[in-house]
Amino acid sequence: ERAAALAAATGGEIVRSVSKVGGGALPLLELEGPVVALDEDLAAVLRDADVPVIGRVSGGRLLLDPRTMVDEEVAWVARALDRPRPT
């Protein structure tokens, strides 16, 4: 549901991806699931937002993983993309 909301709010596309969980007790664990793919150029816009948004770039696309967000953060990402962009 969060992936659908994020895609609708950003104009992104839901795609399947594999994410690494991280270190600690499960450093090799990978989870498959939906992510929202955006144009790679939007990575800089989101990093420069008042509340920075960090995703990962893969295959020329910026991938945002909704598992790393709470529902309220979907609106933050949408607002960050609505800001005027430098030309």
Task: Map the helices and strands.
Elements: H1 2-10, E1 13-20, E2 30-39, H2 42-47, E3 56-58, E4 61-64, H3 71-82
Order of helices and strands: HEEHEEH
Tell me the number of helical segments per DSSP (H or I, 4 or more residues long): 3
Counting DSSP E segments of at least 2 residues, the number of strands comes to 4
Coarse shape: globular
Q: In what order do the strands lie side by side in the largest sheet?
A: 1-2-4-3
Low-confidence stretches: none
Could you describe the largest sheet, including whether it forms a barrel?
A: 4 strands, antiparallel
Q: Give the radius of gyration.
A: 13 Å
What's the pLDDT, averaged over the residues?
88
Query: Distance N terminus to C terminus?
Result: 34 Å
Strand content: 25-35%
Give the helix level as a range of percent: 25-40%
Q: Return the structural class.
A: alpha+beta
Question: In brief, what are we looking at here?
Answer:
The chain has 87 residues and is an alpha+beta fold. It has three helices and four strands; from the N terminus they run αββαββα.
Task: Summarize the structure in words.
- The chain has a four-stranded antiparallel beta sheet, with helices on one face.
- The chain has 87 residues and is α+β, with helices and mostly antiparallel strands.
- It is built from three helices and four strands.
- The longest helix has 12 residues, at 71-82.
- It is globular, with a radius of gyration of 13 Å.
- α1 (2-10) packs parallel to α3 (71-82).
- β3 and β4 form a beta hairpin.
Give me some keywords for this one:
single chain, 87 residues, alpha+beta, 4-stranded antiparallel beta sheet, 29% strand
